[in-house]
Amino acid sequence: MSLRTFATERERLEDLLAELAAFGRDRDGDRLRASIADLEAKLRENRFHAVVVGEFKRGKTTFVNALLGAPVLPTAVVPLTSIVTAVTWGPEPRAEIRFADGRVTSVPVEDLARYVTERGNPGNRLRVERAVLTWPAEDLRDGVVLVDTPGVGSVYRHNTDAARRFVPEADVAIFITSADPPVSESELAFLHEVREHADRVFFVLNKVDHLTEEERAEALGFTERTLSEAIGRPVRVYPVCARCAVEAKVRGDAEALESFGFPTFERDLRAFLMREKGDAILRSVARRALALVADERNALEVEERALGLSSGELAEVHRRLEDVYERVRLARADLRPLLEAETGRLMAWVDEELERLARRTEQRLRAEVRAYLDERPGRPSREALRELTEAVLRDEIDRWRLAHERALAERFRAVTARFVENAQAIAAETVQRSGEILGIALAAAPLEVGLAGDSRFSYSFFEIPTIVESILPDVRRFLPTQTARRMVLRDMDQHIHEAVDKHRGRLRYDLWQRLERSRLELERALDARLAETVEAIRRGLERSERRVQEAGAAADGSTREARARLERLAAGLSALAEASDAA
Length: 583
Prior knowledge:
With 583 residues, this protein is of the alpha/beta class. It contains 16 helices and nine strands. It has a nine-stranded mixed sheet with strand order 4-3-5-2-6-1-7-8-9, with helices on both faces. Helix 7 links the parallel strand 8 and strand 9 (237-239). It starts with 5 loop residues before the first helix and ends with a helix.
């Protein structure tokens, strides 16, 4: 049996959507075609974020190159990667650099090293936020976005921080280690920090080509035991040679590639992404398309029934249905203010929680600054105070986000569930009453909604050195040590408040944006479901009237043919949705 991948299943679903769109063109279904275009966009926009983490010299970037099938990203024997690089599929190689100030610059792929490496961009003096590379790699066709992070445990503290922050955000993390040297203390410490996400971590033992079969088995067993102890559950470790895989892919040597263990990892990664996220997307779109098919079935039933009505009976049906449509129109108008009120209450809760976060973070920062100064009687270090401020802010914000983003999603689903239920009830009642008016049985379809993902929050620590530098240069030059320390304490109190307040504002804006996107998506989905329900009934009546005008009420076979097309579409969509359910 061939492996189910998101790319292959998406193609099946896209073919079914194209057939449904063609049905809409043949049947004058403008709204149907617009709804299908929305579903096609949802499929295209879906992404799986796979973050690659590992210690310096483990071959992390070479591993990314192996997934890409070419030596694309720069590698070296010194700590090299300093900027996060995202790689996504594209028909042609292309690179762009996104700066902290919002600028975006396209650059030749071969110039990436100037922006993403410690050698080309030491200390990130260019203030690069991230690099984005598009590359025509088969492993990216499923919508995978590879995120190459700076090394864990390198001499650069910001590298480890960047890797740690990305793991909770990813759909899957790929942790790269190697046998020489064995798993380090810094790697174990990193795994301890992210262990609650370990069910989404793939572990890779790289550079096994340097080992004999006996040494490989020993290294694999040791690594699996060590990692299992670190995260508190059994893990599987994939032994590979990333460098060998790159060379084999460049040569097109499938046999050599298999011997280096890479295809096994790639197959398992694809299966995981399908199971964890791909099936949910496919199932959601397939069920949404099934709802559209149900609408079209209703339109056909209405069309056939209306053909048997006299002009007087048809006029009475129109009049009674308009009363039904009016109820739906009023319900749609009520959606926005009611949803806005609910999301406003959610943001009030977020503000309360952010206020607690700000107070706790300020207290911790002041305590740690005082402890730092108490432990070091000399003149204060600007660099150390900057690193301390960054580390505490990141730690507090990361822990807050991990807990509260999930809570916000749950609260959003809870408070909006009744809107979904009400809209479902109104749609079902509309269909039922319309069927009763016409004397036929019609069917209503369900709706799925959720909280928007894709967090826009990012740290803004370029300003923190400026804050600290504004305190220290004159102090260090002209003032006695004790006077300097007192001034540092006084000024740090003020600037700690400013830094915390700034990041609280950024975090609030990020959550507000996500909540607003979720509200608007829900509002549009509910509004569209109600509109589609009414539109299908109206379309059936209009078609019957047009057929009477053009060819009389005699059956012409078009309805039977349309019903058969819908049955075939429903069967295909149901099979795809059921396969996603069973996976």
